[in-house]
Amino acid sequence: MLRGTVFVNAVDAGHPCTIRDISKGGARLEMPDTSWMPDQFSLAIHGRGMPVDVRVAWRGDTALGVAFVHR
Q: CA-to-CA distance for 42 and 44, rounded, in angstroms?
């Protein structure tokens, strides 16, 4: 389990999340409510450097599957 912060835009203060099942291609994020989350956002993984861009692959009430966006 890792801690993370979701940033939905450049001026966003961030929203905490729990990161589970992380892999080279993506991760599963858990948070209290995912209904407000956009289809793309930035994810900071605590202790792992700069935020990365992600896109939503699937969505549940309290979990999101995200794919890392490679530029």
A: 7
